[in-house]
Write a structure and sequence with these properties.
Helix content is 23%, strand content 24%. The protein is α+β, with helices and mostly antiparallel strands. The protein has 2 domains: 66 residues, no CATH class; 65 residues, Histidine-containing Protein, Chain: A (2-Layer Sandwich), CATH 3.30.1340.30. The longest helix has 14 residues.
């Protein structure tokens, strides 16, 4: 008869998703809700050791919460201005304002293609949540 081993923590069987619901900080410090502890494996991985003969050891992936430093609103305004210059948009007639990642473009452009290019260029910048298009086309 082939049976899968049952992992026991302090004499009780844990729920299958116990490890996934633990706060990240507890996982980093090695604390476990069920009384087990975390240990580094020789290959650099992290495992949960529930004691005994090692039959209850599970491999957990190494994870680090990485929060990128997003540009500030003044930096977004400058990045937008530089990006628009790089794609040949005439920024002399534009006002670029950023607030909490929302960039507003106002002013006059020569044609619809320039307006579309400006909006697409700024939308692609890191940290931009949304672009408000307040641009108008010059009347010829």
């Amino acid at each position: 008869m082939n049976r899968e081993p049952t992992i026991k923590v302090d004499g009780e069987s844990p729920k299958p998703d116990d490890a996934q619901n633990e706060p990240v900080e507890q996982l980093r410090t090695g604390e476990r809700a069920g009384g087990g502890h975390l240990a580094s494996n020789p290959d650099g991985g992290v495992g949960a050791n529930y004691g005994g003969t090692g039959h209850g050891t599970t491999r957990m992936p190494e994870t680090e919460a990485v929060v990128p430093n997003l540009p500030t609103d003044p930096e977004l305004e400058e990045h937008a201005r530089l990006a628009l210059e790089a794609v040949s948009c005439n920024v002399q007639n534009l006002v670029i304002h950023a607030e909490e990642g929302v960039v507003t473009l106002t002013g006059e452009v020569d044609k619809q293609e320039e307006r579309t290019r400006a909006e697409e260029t700024v939308t692609a910048l890191r940290g931009v949540k949304r672009v408000v298009d307040g641009l108008t086309e010059a009347r010829t």
